Amino acid sequence: MTPERMAELVAAWVRLYTRNLAAPIAERRIAEIVADLHDHIAHERAHGTDDRRTALRVAARMVRGLPADASWRRAMIARSSTQKDSMKRRTAASRSVVRVALVTTSILLVPFVGMQISDGVDWSIFDFVFAGLLLGGTGLLLERAAREPRMLAYRAAAVAIGAAAIVLGESDDAPGLVLFGLLVIVGTVAMAFRTALRSR
Amino acid sequence: MPRRKPGTLLPLETEILGVALSLRRSGHAAFHGFGLAQTMREQKGSRALTGHGTLYKALGRLEDFGLLASRWEDPEAAEGRPRRRLYELTGQGARAAEEALAEAGGQSTRRHPRVASGTA
Question: Which residue ranges form the domains of chain B, and what is each CATH number?
């Protein structure tokens, strides 16, 4: 076998173990080994090594590197999936924040508009800030509970907030707060059921 | 292959850094894969060149650690042959190489025989 034919076989092996990897990583590895093979063959020829021996030396280098090729591929796949997971988590977190902000703002618009058209509604800045923190905090907690269904602490905290809202609403004769507490508890329980059904 | 402890270099990586440092001291700061394998073989007095996978995996790790930097050779310099990937020691890499060589020189040659006998 000629050294060039052996170099083609080595290059085919490199293309095989770099398949489905990110294009820049695969292309770099292939180009680097192709250059190495070219340099190796040129070096052997310059030193008068016969073609058969050169081909064997090229093949031996490939064989000696096989375990490293396999572990390199595993490392590249692991690195790629870690990056993808991290990107997905960041995107999901930003979407959660946007969703919670939109819902909180929409709910707070109800008393704000009510104040403009009726004298029966009279919220101070403090009321808006308090309600905003309560709604936003609970919304983020529910989003977190939905993203990480195995974390019972988030669900327990959401139920505790709902219960506290019902108790406070009852004592202050605030049906809106009671309704809010009920919705939080029902939402948390519904999410727990959905998670349980999906995991089956 | 030896299992890596955090913050430590494998013997092959130490050897590559040592060769890169000796090349830099002799005025050849940039080196390519086959040239490195060839120099390592000469320094070890071995018959075989390091395997492709072993060599390029170690080079990639050293680059990830910030000890080496790499770039593609200029197409004009390639003169029709495939372009080489050129590696160079970074400042951090040069310091790590000096430390590793000093350490290897102070230890028994059984642990890092190739580095201790070749470049120390």
Answer: 11-76+83-119 (1.10.10.10)
Domain definitions of chain A by residue range? 3-64, 92-198
C-beta of residue B53 within 8 angstroms of C-beta of residue B109: no
pLDDT tens digits for B5-57? 666 788 899 899 999 999 999 988 899 999 999 999 988 777 788 899 999 99
For residue A31, give the H/E element and its range: helix A23-46
Flag whether residue B50 sits within 8 Å of chain A, measured between CB atoms. yes
* pTM beyond 0.80: no
Q: Which residues of B touch A69 (CB under 8 A)?
A: 52-53, 57
State the pairing for strand pair B85-89/B68-72: antiparallel
3 state SS of B69:
strand
Q: Where is B71: in which H helix or E strand?
A: strand B68-72
Angstroms from B52 CA to nearest CA on chain A? 5
Q: If you measure CA to CA, which chain B residue comes closest to A29?
A: B56
Q: Does B53 touch chain A (CB under 8 A)?
A: yes
Single-letter amino acid, residue B71: R
